[in-house]
């Protein structure tokens, strides 16, 4: 039985918001916003980090089929370098919220920090993706969207192993940076082991 709750504020429609890729060395940061039907539930819908890749793919299809509204926001590595990762995360979340086809009356944000979205009250909920269905759904959409982007980018930059690490700072990724330098998709404001940039950005 799924123990996640469908609504936090008691108002409706309420949107769940989460991000993926904040701690990566490469690739964009991606956020998603999701409004689920009031009575929606599913035994396998959970925080994306608790699910296998196959289960996330299954849940993504389910969310896209049943969500009343959903949207993703994507902020590039260049923009991350320009405004820093925290502000870029907030920007991605705002893009996702603005793109919803239904205007929510309340926002539930995974985590402990958020830049208020104009005109809509919110709560920041630590580990919200393991407590609320709409935040769990947002976590799945954000992660699956970003993972697909990194798999596509891997075709052009296979030596970084993005098909495996998705841009996160694994030992293999760090080693590849030392050997090959950074790519146009790396966040140059992050600590990349002082790897030289070999590509024009």
Plain-language structure description:
- The chain is an alpha/beta fold and 201 residues long.
- It is built from 6 helices and 5 strands; from the N terminus they run E-E-H-E-H-H-E-E-H-H-H.
- Strand 1 and strand 2 form a beta hairpin.
- Helix 1 packs across helix 4 (133-154) and helix 2 (77-83) packs across helix 3.
- The model has no long low-confidence stretch (mean pLDDT 93).
Brief sketch in words of this structure:
This protein has 201 residues and is α/β, with parallel strands linked by helices.
CATH class: Alpha Beta
CATH topology: Nucleotidyltransferase, domain 5
Number-wise, the strands total: 5
CATH architecture: 2-Layer Sandwich
Terminal residue distance: 49 Å
**Pairing-aware structural class of the strands and helices?**
alpha/beta
User: Main sheet: which strands, in order across?
Assistant: 3-2-1-4-5
* Strand content bin: 5-15%
Largest sheet: 5 strands, mixed
Report the radius of gyration as a whole number of Å.
Answer: 17 Å
Q: What's the SSE pattern? A: EEHEHHEEHHH
Helix content: 25-40%
Mean of residue pLDDT values:
93
Regarding quaternary structure, what we see is single chain
CATH homology superfamily: Ribonuclease H-like superfamily/Ribonuclease H
Which outline best applies? globular
Number of helices: 6
Work out the count of structural domains: 1
Low-confidence stretches: none
